[in-house]
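tool_call: predict_structure(chain=1)
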Amino acid sequence: MDSTGNWYKPGQVFLEKDLILPYVPNVNLCDTKCISESESKRSTLLYFRGRLKRNAGGKIRAKLVAELSGAEGVFIEEGTAGEGGKAAAQIGMRKSTFCLSPAGDTPSSARLFDAIVSGCIPVVVSDELELPFEGILDYRKIALFVSSSDAVQPGWLLKFLKGISLAQIRGMQRNLAKYSRHFIYSSPALPLGPEDLVWRMMAGKLVNIRLHTRRSQRVVKESRSVCACDCKRANFTVPVL
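tool_result:
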């Protein structure tokens, strides 16, 4: 979806040339000390506070609410705007081990980045999701990814979450403390902050585009494949983590 609220047409957007940026977190950062101190206070297994009904891919929210509402260890409620809503979300996330991150009107959701900076392990239920800086960051270290079809099966999601070991949970929480810096915008920009990662990703994409452009300009007509810049190739960005 573009800035005017209209959906992009097929073929307009390619990961090979376009950048995905993270939402600005709506809650305050829970740093390493905060995460360590909150470990014993995270009594809620799974937390979600936000709009319970959305359009397009966000329709999964209503199905998840129907499946999870009232279950032991689960907290789900309609979100509200303003400082009161922000404070409630921040408190709730810091008291929870896992934070549900379903698709919104678009595949991504601001809840994902709120969860990351809160030390709450995101449980992503969004089949079409693309993530910012994925050529640099490995999201498997900080989040769980679940298909929509699995998530809405009776009892499946809670059984899956309860089966995750305490050691794995603690490891992911430590990684969340390390990864949070990549999603906190600042002025002036800091090394490995989102502004820095934007430039790193752009550099990789430019190399990739030049490769395909120059190759397409020099290959002869008998070549087996003439590749344009929209070919599905890996980004050349070098991981830093």
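agent: Residues 32-183 form a domain with the Rossmann fold fold (CATH 3.40.50.2000). Proceeding to next step.
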